[in-house]
């Protein structure tokens, strides 16, 4: 149950695990939880701050009690939350909503409308909370009719929005054996290297046998049409011997995979949900690319020349997994062996 709140039964498992001498990491593995979640729960529930082997705690030993932790959790869930959209701010926000402004537009424009009044500041999320959660503000529920969707309740956002909705997917299990064992060149893994939220992305392609990298900017949008168009342009530059297959995750940016296959002659295989190891070469390469484009970077203005320069660095760097040959050397050798 990653991402969900701990329940009372899990708190009893934590208490008994600690009494039995298990570390917090071992308890996390038993419950299928993050070690950080268990550590935070133990700390909140009055337990020791560490249960690692060899750690000596000074003073009176602290004990985690499941019953006490459950009471505290209930109290935290019920405590009143401060209301931020009140008074003049609420009146202004309501007026702008009635003018069909979105919460994002309101939050972005308030500093310009009231540059000298710090009290006239609110995030778009707080506006949504005030609309959809009773007792969280003075905004009338009727104002939800002015939102783009007109809905009166917020939908949940889960990873299922990203995966499992592509039509005509072919599973990675159907991928040719020669791709699985990296026997011949021409089988690729692909993904998007994301910048900050709304700050662009880079298409990354890695040839499975040689680890040869191709990069291309996808500056402002990752719609299926934009992704297909850019991917098609990349593959069009490759010789036919290097267009055997592409493996991708189930992201919606690949919704036009059938059109891509028709344009390039290159079939697309999709990984199982939540299985990044099925594109291990690509995941590793994306980690290397973070040296040049750290997480949160603004990629909206990255050019193709910049992508080519960074790809050249990676493709001419010796790799231990290739016997200290470079990806460029390995790809060239594979092509020569294939074409004779």
Provide tags for this entry.
extended, 5 strands, 340 residues, 3 domains, five-stranded mixed β-sheet
Short description:
With 340 residues, this protein is α/β, with parallel strands linked by helices. The protein has 13 helices and five strands. Helix 9 runs parallel beside helix 10 (257-264).
Number of H- or I-type helical stretches: 13
| Secondary structure: number of strands | 5
Which structural class do you get from the secondary structure elements?
Answer: alpha/beta
**Order of H and E elements:** HHHHHHHHEEEHEHEHHH
| Backbone shape | extended
Low-confidence stretches: 55-60, 157-164
Number of domains: 3
Q: What CATH architecture label of the largest domain applies?
A: 2-Layer Sandwich
**Main sheet specs:** 5 strands, mixed
C-alpha end-to-end distance:
53 Å
Q: What is CATH's topology name of the largest domain?
A: Nucleotidyltransferase, domain 5
| Level-1 CATH class name of the largest domain | Alpha Beta
What does this structure look like?
The structure is a single chain. With 340 residues, the protein is α/β, with parallel strands linked by helices. The chain has three domains: 8-78, no CATH class; 87-146, no CATH class; 172-339, Ribonuclease H-like superfamily/Ribonuclease H (Nucleotidyltransferase, domain 5, 2-Layer Sandwich), CATH 3.30.420. Helices cover 40% and strands 8% of the residues. It has 13 helices and five strands. It has a five-stranded mixed β-sheet, with helices on both faces. A hairpin with a 6-residue loop joins strand 1 and strand 2. Helix 6 packs across helix 7 and helix 9 runs parallel beside helix 10. It is extended and about 75 Å long. The model is unreliable at 55-60 and 157-164 (pLDDT under 50). It comes from Aeromicrobium erythreum. One of its GO terms (biological process) is transposition. InterPro entries: Integrase_cat-core (IPR001584), IS30-like_HTH (IPR025246), RNaseH-like_sf (IPR012337), RNaseH_sf (IPR036397), Transposase-Integrase (IPR051917), Transposase_IS30-like (IPR053392). Keywords: DNA recombination. GO terms for molecular function: nucleic acid binding; transposase activity.
């Amino acid at each position: 149950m990653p991402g969900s709140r701990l329940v009372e039964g899990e708190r009893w498992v934590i208490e008994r695990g600690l009494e039995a001498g298990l570390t917090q990491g071992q308890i996390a593995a038993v419950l299928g939880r993050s070690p950080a979640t268990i550590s935070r729960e133990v700390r909140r529930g009055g337990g020791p701050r560490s249960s690692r082997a060899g750690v000596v705690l000074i003073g009176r030993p602290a004990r985690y009690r499941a019953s006490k932790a459950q009471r505290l959790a209930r109290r935290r869930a019920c405590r009143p939350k401060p209301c931020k959209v009140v008074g003049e701010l609420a009146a202004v926000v309501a007026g702008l909503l009635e003018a069909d402004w979105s919460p994002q537009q309101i939050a972005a424009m308030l500093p310009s409308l009231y540059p000298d009044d710090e009290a006239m500041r609110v995030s778009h999320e707080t506006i949504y909370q005030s609309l959809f959660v009773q007792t969280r503000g003075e905004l009338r529920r009727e104002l939800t009719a002015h939102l783009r969707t007109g809905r009166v309740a917020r939908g949940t956002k889960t990873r299922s929005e990203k995966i499992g909705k592509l039509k005509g997917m072919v599973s990675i299990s159907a991928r040719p054996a020669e791709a699985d064992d990296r026997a011949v060149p021409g089988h690729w893994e692909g993904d998007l290297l994301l910048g900050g939220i709304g700050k662009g992305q880079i298409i990354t392609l890695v040839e499975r046998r040689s680890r040869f990298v191709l990069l291309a900017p996808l500056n402002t949008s990752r719609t299926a049409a934009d992704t297909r168009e850019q991917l098609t342009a990349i593959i069009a530059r490759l010789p036919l011997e290097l267009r055997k297959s592409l493996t991708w995750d189930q992201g919606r940016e690949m919704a036009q995979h059938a059109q891509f296959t028709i344009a390039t002659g290159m079939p697309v295989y999709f990984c199982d949900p939540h299985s990044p190891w099925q594109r291990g070469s690509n995941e590793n390469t994306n980690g290397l690319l973070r040296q040049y484009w750290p997480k949160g970077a603004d990629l909206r203005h990255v050019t193709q020349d910049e992508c080519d320069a960074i790809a050249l660095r990676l493709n001419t760097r010796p790799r231990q997994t290739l016997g200290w040959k470079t990806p460029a050397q390995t790809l060239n050798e594979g092509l020569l062996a294939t074409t004779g």
